[in-house]
């Protein structure tokens, strides 16, 4: 069956449910695959030993079923894909979440790519290319990811994915260096007693206080202020704050609140908090969402602002994390946000994961090339528990 896109003029072919080749078959994820996929995920991305996985497999499989088999109550086959080798074993998995985008008002179907993995014991180098080719033959107008590792980059770049270099970076702003190091050690070795680390960290941070004290506020206007908001307020305003991008997500009624509820289920980095920046009339100028708790590193999920209000929104985010007692904050960069990060000392950048987009629609590729795309955060897969949580513990 051939499908024609009325809004883009690009003719698309609906992929069959099962794609066969001499190396095996690719088909949508089914409930009976979940435990095998969960076991592969835990060994590949969590370094867990197979013989100690029973509880973790059950929890991971249940979560994968929630996000891949019943996304937003949608009916029909899963968009996630599995590769089955000729012997009937699981060769690989490609986590795919369906999303809606729009390009200058034209509706687009988007595939958000999450975990991409192959079992070296059952795969002979064919699972990865097979899975991506099957995804590309489907009904999606664009495919995107914001968390590709270097192995995934090697697969995707020859398939004409466009890399967004700025979005591949993460920034980390240090508030209390010794406490931040102690928190990192405790995450790596949870059984390490905090009493052995915290007193030394506090003493060092007192000595380093002047070097790491917060900078003078960049936006001194008393007419701009930041305050906490709730998930409903964040969901109400985020589409408006994204409206000046040519290529941006398009959420229907109830989709964004449900997405935020799923994002709030993450456990590794503390509760999910929201804040907004307002002018004197009460109009929201920017908003942010981050995970955080006292004594730990805050993790930015999303920050967005209108016009020239990025600086004030960043200040509100940093102040909220500091006031909570966080030892620092880290998050993904983006083009419109980057210039405002340069005003902070004790802020560092590192490579965090590939952000890439693929599309056959010229307008999409041009928007990506010019940076006129809203991507990352809720328009990616880092909000899922698969990005951070240690299942079964």
* Overall mean pLDDT: 86
Number of helices: 11
> In terms of per-residue confidence, which ranges show pLDDT below 50 for 5 or more consecutive residues?
1-14
What is the rounded distance between the termini? 46 Å
Return the CATH class of the largest domain: Alpha Beta
> What is the CATH architecture annotation of the largest domain?
3-Layer(aba) Sandwich
Output the radius of gyration: 22 Å
Supply the number of structural domains.
Answer: 2
Number of strands: 18
- CATH level 3 topology of the largest domain: Aminopeptidase
Strand content: 25-35%
The name of the CATH superfamily of the largest domain reads Gcn5-related N-acetyltransferase (GNAT)
User: Portion of residues in helices?
Assistant: 25-40%
How is this fold's topology laid out?
Elements: E1 2-4, E2 11-13, E3 19-21, E4 24-28, H1 34-45, H2 54-69, E5 81-84, E6 90-103, E7 106-118, H3 127-136, E8 142-148, H4 150-156, E9 162-163, E10 169-174, H5 177-188, H6 198-207, E11 225-229, H7 231-241, E12 247-249, H8 255-263, E13 272-278, E14 284-291, E15 297-305, H9 310-324, E16 328-332, H10 338-341, E17 347-351, E18 354-359, H11 362-369
Parallel strand pairs: 7-8, 15-16
Antiparallel strand pairs: 1-2, 3-4, 4-5, 5-6, 6-7, 6-12, 8-18, 9-18, 10-16, 10-17, 11-13, 13-14, 14-15
Helix pairs in contact: 1-2, 5-6
How does this structure look, described?
The protein is of the alpha+beta class. The chain folds into two domains: 2-140, Gcn5-related N-acetyltransferase (GNAT) (Aminopeptidase, 3-Layer(aba) Sandwich); 169-175 and 214-352, Gcn5-related N-acetyltransferase (GNAT) (Aminopeptidase, 3-Layer(aba) Sandwich), CATH 3.40.630.30. Helix content is 29%, strand content 27%. It contains eleven helices and 18 strands. The chain has helices spanning 34-45, 54-69, 127-136, 150-156, 177-188, 198-207, 231-241, 255-263, 310-324, 338-341, 362-369; strands at residues 2-4, 11-13, 19-21, 24-28, 81-84, 90-103, 106-118, 142-148, 162-163, 169-174, 225-229, 247-249, 272-278, 284-291, 297-305, 328-332, 347-351, 354-359. The strands form three sheets. Strands 3, 4, 5, 6, 7, 8, 9, 12 and 18 form a nine-stranded mixed beta sheet that branches. It has a seven-stranded mixed beta sheet with strand order 11-13-14-15-16-10-17. Strands 1-2 form a two-stranded antiparallel ribbon. Helix 3 links the parallel strand 7 (106-118) and strand 8 (142-148). Mean pLDDT is 86; it is low at 1-14.
């Amino acid at each position: 069956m051939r499908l024609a896109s009325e809004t883009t003029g690009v003719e698309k072919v609906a992929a069959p449910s099962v794609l066969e080749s001499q190396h095996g078959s690719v088909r949508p994820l089914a409930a009976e695959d979940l435990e095998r996929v969960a076991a592969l995920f835990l060994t590949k991305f969590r370094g867990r030993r197979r013989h100690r996985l029973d509880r973790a497999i059950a929890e991971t499989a249940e979560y994968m079923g929630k996000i891949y088999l019943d996304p937003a109550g949608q009916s029909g086959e899963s968009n996630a894909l599995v590769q089955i080798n000729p012997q009937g074993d699981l060769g690989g998995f490609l986590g795919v979440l369906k999303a809606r985008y729009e390009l200058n008002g034209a509706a687009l179907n988007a595939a958000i790519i999450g975990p991409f993995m192959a079992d070296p014991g059952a795969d002979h180098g064919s699972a990865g290319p097979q899975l991506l080719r099957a995804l590309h033959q489907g009904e999606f107008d664009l495919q995107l990811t914001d968390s590709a590792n270097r192995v995934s980059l090697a697969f995707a770049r020859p398939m004409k994915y466009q890399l967004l270099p700025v979005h591949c970076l993460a920034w980390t702003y240090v508030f209390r260096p010794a406490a931040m190091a102690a928190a990192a050690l405790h995450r790596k070795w949870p059984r390490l007693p905090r009493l052995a680390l915290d007193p030394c960290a506090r003493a060092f941070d007192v000595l380093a206080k002047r070097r790491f004290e917060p900078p003078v506020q960049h936006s001194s206007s008393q007419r701009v202020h930041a305050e906490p908001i709730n998930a409903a307020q964040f969901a109400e305003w985020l589409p408006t704050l994204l409206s000046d991008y040519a290529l941006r997500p398009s959420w229907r009624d109830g989709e964004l609140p449900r997405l935020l509820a799923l994002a709030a289920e993450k456990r590794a980095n503390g509760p999910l908090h929201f804040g907004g920046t307002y002018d004197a009339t009460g109009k929201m100028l920017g908003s942010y969402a981050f995970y955080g708790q006292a004594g730990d590193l805050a993790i930015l999920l999303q920050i967005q602002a209108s016009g020239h209000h990025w600086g004030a929104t960043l200040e509100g985010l940093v102040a909220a994390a500091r006031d909570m007692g966080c030892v620092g904050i880290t998050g993904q960069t983006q083009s419109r946000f980057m210039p405002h990060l340069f005003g902070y000392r004790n802020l560092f950048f590192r490579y965090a994961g590939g952000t890439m987009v693929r599309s056959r629609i010229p307008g999409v590729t041009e928007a990506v090339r010019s940076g006129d795309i809203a991507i990352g955060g809720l328009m990616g897969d880092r909000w899922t528990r698969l990005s951070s949580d240690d299942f079964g513990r």
